[in-house]
Design goal:
It is a single chain. By secondary structure, the protein is an alpha+beta fold. Helices cover about 20% and strands about 35% of the residues. The protein contains six helices and twelve strands. A twelve-stranded mixed β-sheet has the order 7-8-9-10-11-1-2-3-4-5-6-12. The longest helix has 12 residues. It is globular and about 60 Å long.
């Protein structure tokens, strides 16, 4: 088992949250930086950042989901709650830990009822260097920054309506495995060109992602040894 499913959910939420596309650039807005320049500056700045806090709220038909994430260079954490489903993941340089209720572990993570019962109320521990650890770590560290920004092609730029006049990048994602999406990513126009928020709408739902506390660091609470079970004990 690769344990990649929650991050399909996370990536989907990052990519499927939101509100309407902003209007096309009006006449007289030609002094705006190009999409290429904004994305280049944002990418360069994110490469310098060592951490960020992300909060995602999405509504998909009858399902409301909240995800809180802290990303660091070698550590991270994700806490997901979607209706009655709960999942928590903690990644350290030494190991990754997974816990959740029955619905969360079986529905979101894809474990069988038997596997879930072996975890129970404890945390499943995956050691550094194993495939399960790697799959979690690459999605809960700053390595995920490369997936936040859109492609230049098809992206339009305008200014936000607030006093700060931050940059709004707008684009459409064509229908594929899921419905087509309308995306708006707000990037600061200040000295640090960093993402502030992303909003997305689809025919199935909508939501918002907010980025904050760039570079401010965070503290992880690591499960005690007595509160863990090994990956082998769960999967054999």
């Amino acid at each position: 088992m690769t344990l990649s499913r929650p991050f399909a959910h996370f990536a989907l939420t990052l990519g499927l949250l939101g509100a309407l596309l902003s209007a096309p650039i009006a006449a007289g807005a030609s002094n705006l930086p190009s999409v290429t320049a904004i994305l280049k500056a944002a990418n360069a700045q994110m490469l310098k950042e060592t951490s960020v806090h992300i909060e995602v709220v999405s509504v998909n038909k009858t399902t409301s989901s909240t995800i809180k994430v802290n990303l660091g260079v070698t550590k991270g954490a994700e806490y997901l709650q979607s209706n009655k489903m709960k999942v928590a993941i903690v990644v350290t340089p030494q190991a990754a830990y997974l816990s959740g209720n029955k619905l969360g572990l079986t529905t979101v993570m894809g474990l069988t009822s038997v596997q879930q019962s072996k975890i129970g109320t404890k945390w499943m521990k995956m050691l550094h260097g194993t495939s399960p650890y790697t799959n979690l770590a690459k999605n809960l560290t700053t390595a995920v920054f490369s997936r936040i920004l859109p492609q230049v092609k098809g992206t339009k730029v305008s200014t936000s309506s607030d006093k700060a006049k931050d940059f709004q990048l707008s684009w459409m994602t064509a229908a594929g495995a899921s419905s087509a999406t309308k995306n708006v990513l707000l990037i600061s126009s200040g000295a640090k060109r960093l993402p502030i928020s992303q909003t997305i709408t689809t025919s199935a739902g909508h939501g918002t992602t907010k980025y904050s506390k760039w570079g401010k660091g965070f503290t992880l609470t690591v499960p005690r040894a007595n509160d863990t079970v090994t990956y082998k004990a769960v999967f054999g």
